[in-house]
Amino acid sequence: MTKSRPAPPLSRRALITGSAGAVGVAAVGGTAWALDRYLIEHADVTSASDYQGLPGTQNSGSATTGATSAGDGVIDGTTYTSSDRQITITSHSSGSGNSAMAWFVADVRLNDVTAVRNAFAKNTFGTNIIEYPTAIAQSAGALFAINGDYYGFRDTGIIIRDGVAFRDEPARQGLAIMRDGSMISYDETATNAAKLISDGAWQTLSFGPTLVDGGAAVSGIDQLEIDTNFGNHSIQGAQPRTGLGMIAANHFVFIVVDGRASGYSNGVTMTGFAQLFVELGAQVAYNLDGGGSSQMVFNGSLVNNPLGKNRERGTSDILWIGK
C-alpha cells in the first residue's frame, strides 16, 4: 500500500529534554548557549524514514522507497553479490611506525543508485542527535554502511536524503548523488534544494571538500577549512577520514582510513586521501566527516578500527545499502 504523508517541515524545531537539559537551564550566558547549540538534542522531524522517498512538495514526485534486492544475494566474507548489486570490501595497509596507514575500500556496483540510502540517528532529523553506526544500520536494515556528513553538528547546508529536502541553508561545497547514478560536486550557494531535486538529486552531502574532479586530485585541498565554528577541529594534517567516490555511473568506492593510532595507522592527509581515489579510477570524490567518526559497517559489525581502539563513536547519519 502506498503511503502518503506531507514532506517534512524545513524549519519546525522541537526541544527534546534529557539529562543535559537541567544543566542547560542552570547555566547562564555563553555556557548555556554552547550547551544548547552543541549538546542538547533538538528534533526537527521525528520518524524521518516515513517521509524519505515519498511524494510531496519537497520530493521529485515519484514514490519510491529505494531499490530492493531480488532476494538472491550471497554473503562471502566481506563480499555481497546479488542480481542487482555487488559490494566488495578489501583491507589495505602500508608503512610502519609513524608512517603506518590502514584503510578499507568498499567497491560498490549497483543496477539502481536508489539502493544507496540514508538513515538518521534515532530516525530523527535535527541537531546533536547521535547513535552508533551499527545501531543506526540495524534499525535501517543495512548490510553495508559508512558514516555520513555529521549534518547534525551544524545547522547549515543543503540536506536532501532519499529524495526529500530536510534542510535548505546553502553554505559550502556539497556533493549530490543523482538518480541517474552519477555524482557531482557543486556550490551550495549557487542553487537550492528544490532545484537540485528537480534536476534529479537523490542524496546530498554537506561537508567536503571535493577531493577529485575530472579524475584528478583537486589542488590546494590541504589548506582548506570546512568549519571554523566553536568546538570543531581542523581537518588538515594526517587524520582518520571517510570519503565517497564515483568511478562510473552506479559504480562507487567508499573509503575509510583509520588514524591517530601510533604503530597501527597515523591517518592520511587530504591530498593523500584524494590520491587513493584517483588510483582506484574515481572521476569524482568527496570528503565526509572524519576523525573518530570514520566508520564502516558490514553485516552488523565494524569493519575498521576507529582510532585504534575498536570502539564506535556516535554520529548523526549513515549512508547504507541493504541486501
Write a concise keyword list for the protein shown above.
five-stranded antiparallel β-sheet, 323 residues, alpha+beta, nine-stranded antiparallel β-sheet, 33% strand
Detailed description of the structure:
By secondary structure, the chain is of the alpha+beta class. The chain is 13% helix and 33% strand. It has 5 helices and 22 strands. A 9-stranded antiparallel beta sheet has the order 3-4-5-6-18-17-19-15-16, covered by helices on one side. Strands 7-22-9-20-21 form a 5-stranded antiparallel beta sheet, covered by helices on one side. One of its GO terms (molecular function) is hydrolase activity, acting on glycosyl bonds. Keywords: Glycosidase, Hydrolase. This is Phosphodiester glycosidase family protein. It holds the Pfam family NAGPA.
Summarize this entry quickly.
This protein has five helices and 22 strands. By secondary structure, it is of the alpha+beta class. The protein starts with 13 loop residues before the first strand and ends with a strand.
Which strands sit side by side, in order, in the main sheet? 3-4-5-6-18-17-19-15-16
Fraction of residues in helices? 10-25%
Q: What share of the residues does DSSP label as strand, in percent?
A: 25-35%
Mean pLDDT: 86
Spatial shape:
globular
Low-confidence stretches: 1-7, 11-28, 55-66
Strand pairing plus helix content: what structural class? alpha+beta
Alpha carbon gap, first and last residue: 22 Å
- How many E strands? 22
Counting DSSP H or I runs of 4 or more residues, the number of helices is 5
Order of helices and strands: EHHEEEEEEEHEEEEEHEEEEEHEEEE
Radius of gyration: 19 Å
Major β-sheet profile: 9 strands, antiparallel
GO molecular function: hydrolase activity, acting on glycosyl bonds
Domain Phosphodiester glycosidase: 141-319
Keywords: Glycosidase, Hydrolase
Region (Disordered): 51-70
